[in-house]
Amino acid sequence: MQSQRLSEELWSGIEGTYQAILDHPFVAGLTDGSLERASFQFYVLQDAHYLREYARALSVAAARAPAEAEIAMFADHAAGAIAVERSLHESFLADFGLGERDVASTPMAPTNLAYTSYLISTAYGASFPELLGAVLPCYWIYWEVGKELLASGSPDPLHARWIETYAGEEFAEVVRAVLALTDRIGPELSPAQRSGMADRFATTTRYEWMFWDMAYRRESWPV
Question: In the CATH scheme, what is the homologous superfamily, with its name and number, of domain 11-217?
Fold first, then answer.
């Protein structure tokens, strides 16, 4: 049996990437007022696309989960990715004077398409532990970033609302449930399985950095 909790092992492998996330001008700009409104609008539109595909990956996780409790949990989270977090985006879109038609008419940026394609590929082609590792950063990184930024607050009401959502107790309960599952299955996994899960976790953590960088640059297709 492994002495270290699996969640601790996973986090130890991405500490440098997480610090890079905190240092990124998009994330730092949420609290210091330097983030351009156009970049945040770009982020909201792209995240609406992302959440649709993330919900698909969570739905597959529900279908492949080992027990009834996990089936129900991931099914609920898939619905939440569409309903709860999407409602936050709809309020942002309204502030920008945009609506669902604007989301539909906005193409996915290259990084967004790559990230979501990786999630869907993992959902259908990899083991359940690897899929858990791939979807975990979107839960955990956002919670940690939200808590980190909450201490500083934001002069922008939109950014403050975003921070409070991911730093809030409702979202924390969701993340804790997934972390509990991670640590529960940890002792059942072989070293090779733990390594495979860690690789997926590290990759999607990098994609989290890339997603914010994509929004900051307002990435477009070069041709």
Answer: Heme oxygenase-like (1.20.910.10)
